[in-house]
Amino acid sequence: MRNFILAFLISSLVACASGNPVLVPDIQVASPDLVSACQYLDTVYGTSSWYGVFAEKGIENARLSAFDKARILRGTHIVWEPVSQGHGSSQVAGKVYVCHK
């Protein structure tokens, strides 16, 4: 029984920690060259208390927070900076742009 509980907990943690990249329909993740002709708005930040073995979920949560801030700015594109992980949190930063068609 103990092994079953341990296996269940491990599989649950793996399921929580793995996932698809965060995508928001109205904001596109872009590379710097793609937004070279766009208007820079601001840099947004997101943080999550998930880190370590849960870093992937923490980064996902932090990116969702940053996407919310980019949406408030009415950005159309975001360029992610390198992810920062410290003791106690995961942080992301993204430069927000508006690109006119």
Any key phrases for this structure?
5-stranded mixed sheet, 5 strands, 34% helix, alpha+beta, 101 residues
Helix proportion range? 25-40%
Overall, the morphology is elongated
| Topology, number of strands | 5
Distance between the termini: 60 Å
Content-based structural category: alpha+beta
Strand content bin: 25-35%
Radius of gyration (CA) equals 17 Å
The tally of helices reads 2
Order of helices and strands: HEEHEEE
Average pLDDT, to the nearest integer?
80
Low-confidence stretches: 4-9, 11-21
Largest sheet: 5 strands, mixed
Report on this model:
This protein has helices spanning 2-17, 55-72; strands at 28-29, 39-48, 77-80, 84-86, 89-98. The protein has 101 residues and is an alpha+beta fold. Strands 1, 2, 3, 4 and 5 form a five-stranded mixed β-sheet that branches. Strand 4 and strand 5 (89-98) form a beta hairpin. The protein is elongated.
Put the structure in a nutshell.
With 101 residues, the chain is α+β, with helices and mostly antiparallel strands. The protein has helices at residues 2-17, 55-72, and strands at residues 28-29, 39-48, 77-80, 84-86, 89-98. Strand 4 and strand 5 (89-98) form a beta hairpin.
Ordered list of secondary-structure elements with their pairings:
Layout: H1 2-17, E1 28-29, E2 39-48, H2 55-72, E3 77-80, E4 84-86, E5 89-98
Parallel strand pairs: 1-3
Antiparallel strand pairs: 2-5, 3-5, 4-5
